[in-house]
Amino acid sequence: xxxxxxxxxxxxxxxxxxxxxxxxxxxxxxxxxxxxxxxxxxxxxxxxxxxxxxxxxxxxxxxxxxxxxxxxxxxxxxxxxxxxxxxxxxxxxxxxxxxxxxxxxxxxxxxxxxxxxxxxxxxxxxxxxxxxxxxxxxxxxxxx
Length: 144
Hints:
Layout: E1 3-12, E2 15-21, E3 27-32, H1 35-42, E4 45-50, H2 65-74, H3 96-107, H4 113-117, H5 119-132, H6 135-143
Parallel strand pairs: 1-4
Antiparallel strand pairs: 1-2, 2-3
């Protein structure tokens, strides 16, 4: 049964900041040290909105359609604020230079500094998604 709450989440140095809004404008907020702990607590929420890329580019899908669409909506002045996330393989890199090389080999482009700086958070969420959903589950959810 869904929890009647809407959860907003953003990564921070301390972990994952969240704010939960429930019936009657009931508010909760705090920080989880790991996204998995937050997921275990709020996975049944009506909405769980996280400010991190979910679904990564690959050899087959080099640029995510959601990034293209967001750039079109924000064009002509703010489209540059949408940066592409690294491919899964680049998330294992130990340095920005290595991540750029790996991403270029997979997606034909380097990654931005912004993407590199949040790559640990992207990996944490990607690892959770891989654990929670099978690849076929993720595909079916994307097609809905």
